[in-house]
Amino acid sequence: MSDTITIRRPDDWHVHLRDGPMLARVARHTARQFARAIVMPNLVPPVTTVEQAGAYRERIHAAAGPGFAPLMTAYLTDRTSPEELSRGQEEGVWIAAKLYPAGATTNSESGVTDIVNIRPCLERMQQIGMVLCVHGEVTEPDVDVFDREAVFIERILEPMVRDFPALKVVLEHITTRQAADFVASAPANVAATITPQHLHLNRNALFAGGLRPHAYCLPVVKREEHRLAVRKAAVSGSPKYFLGTDSAPHAREAKESACGCAGIFNAPFALESYAAVFEEESALDLLEGFASHHGADFYGLPRNEGTVTLQRTEVVVPAEIDGLVPFHACESLSWRLAG
Ligand code: NCD
Ligand code: ZN
After folding, report:
1. 184 is in which domain, residue-wise?
2. pTM
């Protein structure tokens, strides 16, 4: 068995880097692991204009240092104008736009209240080849939290993909068999990102010996059958599935609270975490496609130059990193990213 894995430099196609002091704490972890990352726009206030995104990109550059390229997304609201999307794409600022159903997750209050409201934007995006990143959960209170992704696919995504057949869509952080199946059977312009936590955890993790706020993210982790389906998709070799960590840091106090925030900070050991899954599935040879090829190809960007190497060595993930509790805290992983 080989003691190193060398792959083309990977990218993270879904990350929350935050802003201000939190950005300063977390940016270097993503920059150490990845050449590029799609940065989610759910700041307060949200990143809705080309100017805001350009300024945010500068702040990320300053925090992450050279050698890392942040790729910016527009936060869609009921009032987003198609012109703002076209302009930002032409200026090389937007790579995609993000659909947050209003109320679905952290800082989604300004999100879209009815898909009808963004039809002109979707029309334009289809025309200009701009990718739509989707947080795929309905928000109706009568829908069980664990069913929200499956219901979103039925009620919103299937009709959308039918109505905008050439729109490039990424269903973000998939968590269910229904999502994996939907993406597999959709045309090539529909893809999905997969996080480490949805590959490692099922919903028992939320309640293992007590309430576990650090296993809480959105979409929430699901039953074992769904974890297994998402795993199968990740290691299938299909170009429709690619790496998106959804690393979403929140201060420890905000997680360990009577009303704890959703989000798992997985950036510091992201590749190591994915490598553990691919190794368990005897699919280490498919890690490079998932981490370094499929996302770039889908977005129509060049694959990165250069390589990174993982070395087989036992590493215990610290209980805390820069004041934050990381994914896998106090657990041991068997690969470490060199350098
Ligand atoms: C994300 C966050 O904290 O910004 N939280 C999460 O649980 N994933 C938002 C999101 O991606 O849903
Ligand atoms: Zn996210």
Report:
1. 9-305
2. 0.98
